[in-house]
Amino acid sequence: MATSNDIRKGLCIEFSNDIFKVIEFLHVKPGKGPAFVRTKMKSVTNGKVLDNTFSAGHKIEEVKVITRKFQYLYDDENGFHFMNNDDFSQLYLDKEMIENSQFMKAGEEVTIILKEADETPLSAELPQSVFLDVIEADPGVKGNTATNALKNAIVETGARVMVPLFIEPGDRIKVSTEDGSYLERVK
């Protein structure tokens, strides 16, 4: 059993019948009154973000988790199939457990968070960015170059990405998996 003083970034805790990962935290010691910890937590099961304040010394239930690298194999109508690169065992995750799954392509390495006690999968984290080929892109409109004009493009996974006007079909681009934004063209 841990206390609110043990809260740190990346800590997984059990809170209101769910498992949350601490994204941000701030220890506050006001001049008047008791100290407290202000946190921003993300549910590892459904992705909801929750702001919460813990008073100093508040008991929290820490959840031990382990992370492993898995290779994305394929998806079906219900979810995704992964393979452990160490022992070649396969793992299945529901579609709701992965955020921004439209940027995953076969063979991509994904970090899966497992509960240490029974190795139950909790969630999956994509790499910060991925390299994707542009399959289709709207034509650039002449005269739109005075500003940072963007156009629609469809990448090899089927996801839509807003790209600059100079990107053409066949180009390889780097895309952020957090918000789906274009980062750069790759040679």
UniProtKB/TrEMBL annotation:
Q: What is its main location?
A: cytoplasm
Q: Keyword annotations for this protein?
A: Cytoplasm, Elongation factor, Protein biosynthesis
Q: In which pathway does it act?
A: Protein biosynthesis; polypeptide chain elongation
Q: Which domain of life is it from?
A: Bacteria
Q: Which SMART domains match?
A: EFP, Elong-fact-P_C
Q: Which residues form the Translation elongation factor P/YeiP central domain?
A: 67-122
Sorted alphabetically, the Gene Ontology BP terms of this entry are: peptide biosynthetic process
A single Pfam family it belongs to is EFP_N
Q: What GO cellular-component annotations does this UniProt entry give? A: cytosol
Sequence ranges assigned to domain Elongation factor P C-terminal in this UniProt record: 130-185
Q: What does the record give under GO molecular function?
A: translation elongation factor activity
Matching entries from InterPro entries are given as:
Elong-fact-P_C (IPR015365), NA-bd_OB-fold (IPR012340), Rib_uL2_dom2 (IPR014722), Transl_elong_fac_P/YeiP (IPR020599), Transl_elong_KOW-like (IPR013185), Transl_elong_P/YeiP_cen (IPR001059), Transl_elong_P/YeiP_CS (IPR013852), Transl_elongation_fac_P (IPR011768)
Q: Which locations, inside or outside the cell, does it occupy?
A: Cytoplasm
Family from the record: Belongs to the elongation factor P family.
Protein task? Involved in peptide bond synthesis. Stimulates efficient translation and peptide-bond synthesis on native or reconstituted 70S ribosomes in vitro. Probably functions indirectly by altering the affinity of the ribosome for aminoacyl-tRNA, thus increasing their reactivity as acceptors for peptidyl transferase.
Q: What is this protein called?
A: Elongation factor P
The taxonomic lineage of its organism, from the top, reads:
Bacteria, Pseudomonadati, Bacteroidota, Flavobacteriia, Flavobacteriales
